């Protein structure tokens, strides 16, 4: 099987060039073609000799895969379906990425796994099981292979999968995005989400300056456990204890995602417990309207409940915003991605 060049770091490309007998500077040339010029075939790398290109073509390919489907929402959101041919299970799979245009920004929500192991009861992705990890190249391909690439201002790792469960690939992808030899983006343009897998979370906090979003959804331990099985292995109080060891007053931002479920977590008693749990943390809370689906046994909170909850948090020192729902009519909103062909 050929090596996919997309997703390789400068160090990995230097090792590949050394193995093939290429000059050391060829690795930077490859970076330039892959990440700045974004070519999709080796023959386009014209400052490599024909012999070098032929040699490289024997063992490697770019690794670009264009989407096989694009659905467009009435609000302008676009959902792209990508084939994943090199997933670790060796079968044909698909993942989805969501392009969200706004007046002053354009965000791409990317996937990092085919399916998910976390089995959160409210998430369609979690209900379909786990089918494989994406490589760094698979992740980056979701950016590089959409026609709106030049418009992108932000990337969020909030699509299919749990980023801390595939952290090596996520970190490699963010390294390409933020390094001078890659895209040279500021880490402030990237947000990585997690349900709170502590070993991966600690490594992420130590090795990355990207923003972090923690899926919280319920401050009551037993109620959170009923929604999110990860609570048993990595309780919320331990996740919060780890987060308190880091400085959040600088460039890196900490946020908590809180989906509103009618009669489950949307009253003022839960709001009070949430304020208590987050006390002393420099953070914000993003409220999310639950997007109902046949796979999940929950209902969307009433608008008055959401407004009361948001107002209580803001009055009590926790910055709280309500995230706009985008792309619900094409199953592109939070928790609805399924990668169905």
Overview of this protein structure:
The chain is of the alpha/beta class and 341 residues long. The chain contains twelve helices and 14 strands. It has helices at residues 10-20, 26-36, 50-59, 124-127, 136-144, 167-178, 198-207, 221-227, 230-233, 236-243, 268-277, 303-315, and strands spanning 3-4, 60-61, 69-72, 78-84, 93-101, 106-109, 113-115, 130-133, 154-157, 190-194, 211-215, 254-260, 284-289, 319-322. The strands form three sheets. It has a ten-stranded mixed β-sheet with strand order 3-4-5-6-9-10-11-12-13-14, covered by helices on one side. A two-stranded parallel sheet has the order 1-2. Strands 7-8 form a two-stranded antiparallel sheet. The two termini are 25 Å apart. The mean pLDDT is 93.
What is the tally of beta strands?
Answer: 14
Order of helices and strands: EHHHEEEEEEHEHEHEHEHHHEHEHE
CATH architecture identity of the largest domain: Alpha-Beta Barrel
CATH homologous superfamily name of the largest domain?
Answer: Aldolase class I
H/I helix tally: 12
Topology:
Layout: E1 3-4, H1 10-20, H2 26-36, H3 50-59, E2 60-61, E3 69-72, E4 78-84, E5 93-101, E6 106-109, E7 113-115, H4 124-127, E8 130-133, H5 136-144, E9 154-157, H6 167-178, E10 190-194, H7 198-207, E11 211-215, H8 221-227, H9 230-233, H10 236-243, E12 254-260, H11 268-277, E13 284-289, H12 303-315, E14 319-322
Helix pairs in contact: 1-2, 5-6, 11-12
Task: Tell me briefly what this model is.
With 341 residues, the chain is of the alpha/beta class.
């Amino acid at each position: 099987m050929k090596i996919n060049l997309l997703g390789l770091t400068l160090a990995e490309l230097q090792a590949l060039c050394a193995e093939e007998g290429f000059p050391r500077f060829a690795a930077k040339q490859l970076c330039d073609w892959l990440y700045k010029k974004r070519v999709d075939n080796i023959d386009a790398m014209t400052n490599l000799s024909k012999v070098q290109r032929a040699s490289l073509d024997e063992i490697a390919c770019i690794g670009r895969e264009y989407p096989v489907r694009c659905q467009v929402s009435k609000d302008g959101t676009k959902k792209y379906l990508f084939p994943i041919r090199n997933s670790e299970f060796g079968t044909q799979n698909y993942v989805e990425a969501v392009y969200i245009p706004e007046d002053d920004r354009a965000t791409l929500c990317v996937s990092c796994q085919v399916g998910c192991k976390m089995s959160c009861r409210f998430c369609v992705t979690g209900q379909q099981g786990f089918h494989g990890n994406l490589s760094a190249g698979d992740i980056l391909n979701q950016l590089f292979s959409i026609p709106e690439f030049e418009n992108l201002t932000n990337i969020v790792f909030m699509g299919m999968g749990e980023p801390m469960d595939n952290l090596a690939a996520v970190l490699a992808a963010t390294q390409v995005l933020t390094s001078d030899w890659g895209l040279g983006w500021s880490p402030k343009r990237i947000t990585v989400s997690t349900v709170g897998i502590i070993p991966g979370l600690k490594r992420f906090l130590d090795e990355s300056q990207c923003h972090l979003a923690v899926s919280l959804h319920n401050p009551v331990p037993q109620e959170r456990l009923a929604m999110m099985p990860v609570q048993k292995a990595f309780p919320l109080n331990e996740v919060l204890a780890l987060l308190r060891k880091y400085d959040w007053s600088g460039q890196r931002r900490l946020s908590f995602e809180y989906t509103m479920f009618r009669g489950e977590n949307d009253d003022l008693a839960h709001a009070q417990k949430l304020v208590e749990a987050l006390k002393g943390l420099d953070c914000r809370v993003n409220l999310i309207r639950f997007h109902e689906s046949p796979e999940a046994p929950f209902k969307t909170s009433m608008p008055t409940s959401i407004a009361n909850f948001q107002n209580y948090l803001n009055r009590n020192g926790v910055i709280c915003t309500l995230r706009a729902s985008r792309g619900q009519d094409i199953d592109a909103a939070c928790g609805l991605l399924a990668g169905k062909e």
